[in-house]
Amino acid sequence: MEHLTLLLAIVIVTALVFDFTNGFHDTANAMATTISTGALKPKTAVAMSAVLNLVGAFLSVEVAKTISGGLINEQGIRTEVIFAALVGAILWNLFTWLLGLPSSSSHALFGGLIGATLMSVGTSGVNGGVVVTKVLLPALAAPLVAGLAAMLATRLTYRIGRNTDEKATAKGYRAGQIASAGLVSLAHGTNDAQKTMGVITLALVTGGVLAPGSNPPLWVIVSAGVAIALGTYLGGWRIIRTMGKGLTDLRPQQGFAAQTSAATVILASSHLGFSLSTTQSCSGAVMGAGLGRKGGVVRWSTATRMFIAWGLTLPAAGLVAAGAEFLTGQGPWGIAATAALLVLLSAVIWFASRRQPVDHTNVNGADESADADGPAGIVAAAVAAVTPPPVTGPASEIAATIPAPGTGTSDPTTEPARPAAV
């Protein structure tokens, strides 16, 4: 720790800020379905998730080693590059959080690292094989595998319980949801907390504090685990609303199937060192569970916006990081300007979010038309625009004397009037 420079300290703090945003951005992965089905109260759910994220951070370092020693070449990478990469990842996380879109924090970080490295040293600084095998391929496979598993699990669950009362079994499935949500939170800690560990370790290597190929020190593991746990406890309520209510309407059986499938995929990938997106895995599982129930639907308008966000994450974060790297390359004033821009834009996004706040009190009480048809109020305004105005004047008095069809006279006890015989 005594070898840390001011710039290196700034990078470490920025990495922990990213870890914090990762926590509240991805809380929905573990707890959206549990909250939407009523298995846990919102604040209880995020508190439980925060503790298990912290525990999960200590279970493995395989993903951290993929980032610190595999994604980009450590030789020739300056500490400023990592700072620029984190700026791109943080701003994309905050922007998609403002929109309530469950994009991938992992891919935001990868895109930032790739964009900043390309701007700094060119294509030689990026290990293309690692990007393809451990980032892009898992990104394509994870939501498909998790979605298919959740769909099959949902159908199996309903088939097994077809002769039982659904309301009677719902309590048991809610208990199962709590257990599976805890498993997803644990898996999230083993995967996403390690990404920040890898970034800090990479910064320590570029700063000459650690030798190349070193494992994350204990203080890095602890600080990354605490940062993601605090962010998780804050709760990304906007994204929880989208995951829990915007994609599909889930019942306890579906929530249990979705979370169990997602946790299995995430834990398996962490064991193999695949740095996949937990967001994509959980979102795919939620959609699969929605399709697995007979009569269940997926709101494809919301899903389409989510898919677009997934596709834009790597290039968008990379472009922002490349611009930040260009600025930091101008010297100390460029680094200071980049830091100031990060703080300013973050504040702008936060104040924008206060115009329509979402928290634990209204995360399940939103107007569903806002999720299905666009911003709240658009459908209502359109209906009001084509509704004829009320009749006033003499015509309204005449209309008042005419009974409604099928009601007969104004006396509700009498028979409806019959037409006269011709």
UniProtKB/TrEMBL annotation:
Q: Which residues form a coiled coil?
A: none
Q: Where in the cell is it found?
A: Membrane
Q: Which InterPro entries match?
A: Phos_transporter
Where does the record place the region Disordered?
A: 391-422
Statement: the UniProt record of this protein carries the keyword Cell membrane: no
**Keyword Metal-binding annotated:** no
Membrane topology, from the record: Multi-pass membrane protein
Print the keywords alphabetically. Answer: Membrane, Phosphate transport, Transmembrane, Transmembrane helix, Transport
Q: Where are the transmembrane segments?
A: 6-24, 45-61, 81-101, 108-129, 135-153, 196-213, 219-240, 307-327, 333-352
* Pfam families for this protein: PHO4 (PF01384)
Its family remark reads:
Belongs to the inorganic phosphate transporter (PiT) (TC 2.A.20) family.
Name used for this protein in its record: Phosphate transporter
User: In which organism is this protein found?
Assistant: Streptomyces camponoticapitis
